[in-house]
Amino acid sequence: MKFLFDHAFLYLKGDSNLNLKEDAEPIDLRSDTVTLPTEEMLEAIRNAKLGDDVYKEDPTVNQLEEMAAKKMGKEAAMLVPSGTMANLVSVTANTKRGDSAILEADSHIYWYEVGGISAIAGVLPIPVKGKMGVMNPADIEAAIRPASLHFAGTTLICIENTHNRAGGTIVTPSQIEAISKVAKEYGLRLYMDGARIFNAAVALKVDVREFTRHVDNLMFCLSKGLSCPIGSIVVGSEEFIERARKVRKILGGGMRQAGIIAAPGIIALEKMIDRLEEDHINARLLAEGLVKIEGLSVDLRTVQTNMVMCDVDELGVSADIFVERLRARGVLVNSISKTRVRFVTHRGIEREDIERALRIIEEVAREIKAENKR
Ligand code: TLP
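That is the input. Now the predicted structure with TLP docked in place:
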């Protein structure tokens, strides 16, 4: 248990105090959340037309929400400050207190959102273990708690796409459709944490609506690979978004001149989606380099978008120690378990950075191996 807490701390803490031995700029592969806004985004923030969004009077927010709804093939959308709030708003607006929700056992909602769906929405999570982040429809069906005196009746299924802890893996449109059949059969709602849904769409080269048509509602993040500084968007029917607006308000997420957040979001939707492919190419390059390094292993089947999960067990040190050693050499990554390290590619990481990172990682792995032999 102690390990879990130590590890969670390491995973979440920032790196304001880098102590780098090398002169070169650090190569930050911790997350695509570290991306900075483009010059064009900063300019758009400066020039955004603003109003009070709680009165729905911010023209830039309204424009972004309309664009997002259209792009996702749904009726309406709503801007929120973070992915965590988007998930909490969505689960709350889809359930009532005392309900249960089925979610993947390694999902972000279950692991990294401070238990908000229980602590705030009053919802019991029922974790179902998936394969590469994808729950089997039969397992979902088996986990549904019927309405009965004894049970927290299940009203919601949550999927995550791409799946973070599984390594940025994709839940394909046909897998979503199969899950939606179970949802329909049992009268449950289907929600998608689509924080990185555009990574999935770009990787499979299909319109993002292929992923959204079988879910009732979803959220996606502007502040990850799309490079915005802040913001996520909840998308669904008019009626759902009206309910979600009230939940956002109770959580303190009603924002005023939020056009300064929406303005870069518009640029993200117009210009930042296609370039995600570069991140995928770089992740693949990285993964193929890592598997050649003694002591490291990567399941290449999971390398589908912009993440690489690397197992360091055979090196003979914990993931946390490996992370510290890399950090000292200017390669920043996160550990996600005792033996696994996560690398994330994003705008600002070029092919040369991956090549340099691989050289450093190889050296560090060799040093650790040699030390362990002594
Ligand atoms: N993920 C972050 C960390 O919180 C782990 C990251 O670096 O990957 N859903 C998914 C699938 C996510 O990966 C994240 C963030 C969120 C929701 C929450 O988004 P934010 O950080 O905007 O609250």
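The first helix runs from residue 2 to 12.
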